[in-house]
Structures are given as C-alpha cells and as structure tokens.
Amino acid sequence: MTLTPARTAATPFPDGFLWGASTTAHQIEGSNVNSDWWRKEHDPPAKIAEPSLDACDSYHRWEQDMDLLAELGFTDYRFSVEWARIEPARGYFSRAEIAHYRRMVEGAIVRGLRPMVTLYHFTIPQWFADLGGFTADGAVALFARYVEECAPIIGEGVTHVGTINEPSVIAAMAGLANRGEQGFPPAGLPFPDEETMHALIAAHHTTNRAVRAINPDIHVGWTISNQVYQALPGAEEVTAAYRAPREDVFIKAARGDDWIGVQSYTRTKIGADGPVPVPADAERTLTGWEYYPEAVSRAIRHTAELTGPSTPLIVTENGIATGDEQCRIDYCAGALDAVAACLKDGIDVRGYLAWSALDNYEYYEYYEWGTYKATFGLIGWDRETFVRPPEPAAHWLGGLGRERVLPRL
After folding, report:
1. Cβ–Cβ contacts within 10 Å for residue 239, how many?
2. Per-residue pLDDT for the chain (409 aa), expressed as one digit of tens each?
C-alpha cells in the first residue's frame, strides 16, 4: 500500500539537517525491572491499564530497528540509555549494560545513523526514587555521577546528547504526587512542584558541564514538552501567567546551550478561567488530543523567541497516535510544511525527528503511561512474534530524507 500527502516535495532542507525518529528505553526495551515505572506498573493502587512487560523487545532487537531506519532513509536516531540498568543499585554500575549501550552507539554509526543520546527520559532507578528523586539531598550529584559513568557510551561518535527529557512533565507529575492526585487534567499541565523544577534545572546545568568534560565536542541540550498555549480573546495575561511556570522557565534555562529540543503534538487553548477542554466535535487522535499539525510551528516560534538566535532548535518529537496511515502522513506533511516555513523565516531549526520509530508503551490518561493501543510508530510490531513491518508513513518520511527535501509550502 502506497499513500501520499496532498502536496509534492520541493523545498530543500539544509545540509546536515537531522532527519530521523525518536524512542526511549522504557517504552521499547522491555523488562526494565529496576526502574520506578516498572514498580508502578505492577502496583494495583496505581491503576495502570497494563504493564510494559517485554514492550517490543528492542533491548535485544535494536539491530533490527536500526537496520529498518537506515534502509528507510533516515539519517538520525534518538534513543535513551536507561539509568536503572546502568546503576541498578546505588553505587553499582553495570559494565555489561554500559557495553550494551556502547554497542548501540557503534551500531548506529556503522549503519549511517547519527546517534542522539538522551540520558534521562522519565524513568529513574527504584533506589533513587526511594531517596526522594531529584529533590533528595545530594540528588543532583548522584545524577551527575551517573552521567560521568556514561562516558564510555557517549565519549566518541555521539554529536548530540540530551540531558533530561521533558522536565516540565516530570515537575508536573511530582506536583500531582505531592498533592496526592492521579491523572492529568483534560487540558493543560498541572502546576509543577517548584522544588522539583529548580532541582531539574540545576541537574541540567550540572550535567551540561559533566558531558562537556567527557568530550567538549558534544552538543548538549535538553528537550521540552511544548503545550502550544493559545490565548482566547481577552486571556493573554492569563495565558502568559499559566505558561510561565509550566513551560517558559524550562525553555529559558536552555539559553546558552548548544541546542534545545522542541516536542509538540497538539495545542492547549486558554480562556479567562484557564485551560479549555478540546471540543467534543474536534478531530482527535488515539490519545484524545486535538489533531493539530500546526502545533510544531507555534512551538518552534515561541521557543526561538525565548531562547534567542544563539540557541539552535531541533524538533526532537512530533507525531500522531493513529491507526490510519493516511492520517499519519497528512499530519506529518502539515507539520513539515510548518517546519519549512520556520526555516524560510530564518529560524535556526537543525532537524526533525518523528515520534516514534516504533509503536511503544504509551499514554492512556494524558501523560500517564499504560497502553500499547496509542500507536505513534512509523514501524509496527506483532505482540506475539515481534515481527516489525514498517508502516507506509515510514517509507514516505524516510524517502524524504533520501531526497533531501521538505514538502512544498
């Protein structure tokens, strides 16, 4: 089956533009038994819909995954290393796991994929969670020590390293936990835990220095969840006040970094009383989010406005949960039109990485993991055999990478 968007490709993208797909360890590797999320998934009071279990077994099948991405035409692959595997007990660092992730880096390079490595993507070791996470005494130093131990993984051949993925979501989840609440609201992010917010920013800055000490040629940044807050008439001040602690503080913390990751999927409208739920008649994705391909453009422009021209931007996540491949292609085409418009306007966008390379363990209640039904993947997989057939969107998007063009405006 061949599907195409309702536009033709004609706008070249810059030399060296990152063209790839993203994943994270816990959502694809499987059997991440020493992580805080593994424990949560198996805790009945947490009411998680289903545990991650084997996921798509990418821990053992990463070579197949990279082979597919390279064959499809992608040039970049963003994946994370799992702290809970590397340091399963405090102060014990697994040389076998470090060697495993180093093989992944080398495997990507051999296949012509530039590896972008994320050091912390939502999951932490159970022992670190038991200490109190990033707000515990000495937590930032413990995280920095873990990063230093990752030197054999990232020291050679890795040009881009992300320190922390979506700190705004982590701080929001901490805020929920402190208030004894579960589940995100139907629109917008909960108010973040301020202590966690400041701890994550401190950890990011400390990790920046730690990574540069490993190799000063590595480009270091972090990746931000952009909710694309849009003010309804008369709600401009309310929107700015709502957005500041939930997003802007983390974007501003990236000033002076080598790059910042923009991650967007939909928008959040803000009225006089706060976030406005998505209308019942709006087109939605499998996560319940509004179908809104233009989100990435607004996220890029807002991020660039806050960081200034000295901080390059990379779209490190953008995609759609759907079972309709024509819908996925149309969404990505619309998003890429928006990226091309940003480039045309002189914004320094260095790459586009789709979320996600594979169907994975995903959201079932806004920002809670717990289902395999929300299919974001360019590559599907069979839950019995783990056979991995690329979807039509994967061939289309990978083909754009080979042709070195963006969709026509």
Report:
1. 20
2. 556 555 544 566 888 999 999 999 999 999 999 999 999 999 999 889 999 999 999 999 999 999 999 999 999 999 999 999 999 999 999 999 999 999 999 999 999 999 999 999 999 999 999 999 999 999 999 999 999 999 999 999 999 999 999 999 999 999 998 898 877 888 889 999 999 999 999 999 999 999 999 999 999 999 999 999 999 999 999 999 999 999 999 999 999 999 999 999 999 999 999 999 999 999 999 999 999 999 999 999 999 999 999 999 999 999 999 999 999 999 999 999 999 999 999 999 999 999 999 999 998 766 779 999 999 999 999 999 999 999 999 999 999 887 766 555 4
SS3 125: strand
Tokens of 80: 């994370």
Q: Which CATH superfamily is domain 9-404 in?
A: Glycosidases (3.20.20.80)
Q: How far is CA 317 from CA 58, 242, 266, 320, 377, in A?
A: 19, 23, 12, 10, 12
Say how many C-beta atoms besides its own lie within 10 A of residue 311's C-beta.
19
Name the pTM for this structure. 0.96
Phi, psi of 351 (to 5 degrees): 180, 165
Tell me the domain boundaries of the chain: 9-404
